[in-house]
Amino acid sequence: MSLINSEVKPFNATAYLNGEFVDVSDADLQGQWSIFFFYPADFTFVCPTELGDLADNYEEFKKLGVEIYSVSTDTHFTHKAWHDSSETIGKLQFPMIADPTLRISRNFDVLIEDAGLAERGTFVVDPDGKIQIVEINAGNIGRNAEELLRKVKAAQYVRANPNEVCPAKWKEGEETLAPSLDLVGKI
């Protein structure tokens, strides 16, 4: 079953953010765009490259009104230790959610049950708390923050312009399509 247009299920968690442990819940998502960025584990190989890429592009996401939540099944203590010991992870200014109970990973259907780890899952959530974009990558394939930015801009555009759609490789400012019978078979 697809998670597209489904509401984020209720959750409460502890996250590490800017030197503090903070509470995060589904209520924090209301009224803003959010990205849930699941990754397998702290102190690994591909994960810090992805999180570092997000950190390098974080200001662009913030300009779009988007909060990023990175999530792994590690504890908030492990997140702090990784943040304190890694120059790359030390750049993160977004919440690192701890999911040691595996509840959030199960809610988003990215839990690898026999390993107790999350898949590389990316979820873009609209201001109503509904999932608009889902992307799952194999563990050995890293994601690209610039492509994610493009997808967020497209999701925001079609939300603001419900009679238009964004074609493949659409970038902000480019032409969109207005679906109609006249377009059928002409693209």
From TrEMBL:
<keyword id="KW-0676">Redox-active center</keyword>
<dbReference type="InterPro" id="IPR017559">
    <property type="entry name" value="AhpC"/>
</dbReference>
<comment type="function">
    <text>Thiol-specific peroxidase that catalyzes the reduction of hydrogen peroxide and organic hydroperoxides to water and alcohols, respectively. Plays a role in cell protection against oxidative stress by detoxifying peroxides.</text>
</comment>
<dbReference type="Pfam" id="PF00578">
    <property type="entry name" value="AhpC-TSA"/>
</dbReference>
<dbReference type="InterPro" id="IPR050217">
    <property type="entry name" value="Peroxiredoxin"/>
</dbReference>
<dbReference type="Pfam" id="PF10417">
    <property type="entry name" value="1-cysPrx_C"/>
</dbReference>
<dbReference type="InterPro" id="IPR000866">
    <property type="entry name" value="AhpC/TSA"/>
</dbReference>
<dbReference type="InterPro" id="IPR024706">
    <property type="entry name" value="Peroxiredoxin_AhpC-typ"/>
</dbReference>
<keyword id="KW-1015">Disulfide bond</keyword>
<protein>
    <recommendedName>
        <fullName>Alkyl hydroperoxide reductase C</fullName>
        <ecNumber>1.11.1.26</ecNumber>
    </recommendedName>
</protein>
<dbReference type="InterPro" id="IPR036249">
    <property type="entry name" value="Thioredoxin-like_sf"/>
</dbReference>
<keyword id="KW-0575">Peroxidase</keyword>
<keyword id="KW-0560">Oxidoreductase</keyword>
<keyword id="KW-0049">Antioxidant</keyword>
<dbReference type="InterPro" id="IPR013766">
    <property type="entry name" value="Thioredoxin_domain"/>
</dbReference>
<dbReference type="InterPro" id="IPR019479">
    <property type="entry name" value="Peroxiredoxin_C"/>
</dbReference>
<keyword id="KW-0963">Cytoplasm</keyword>
<feature type="domain" description="Thioredoxin">
    <location>
        <begin position="2"/>
        <end position="157"/>
    </location>
</feature>
<comment type="similarity">
    <text>Belongs to the peroxiredoxin family. AhpC/Prx1 subfamily.</text>
</comment>
<dbReference type="GO" id="GO:0102039">
    <property type="term" value="F:NADH-dependent peroxiredoxin activity"/>
</dbReference>
<comment type="subunit">
    <text>Homodimer; disulfide-linked, upon oxidation. 5 homodimers assemble to form a ring-like decamer.</text>
</comment>
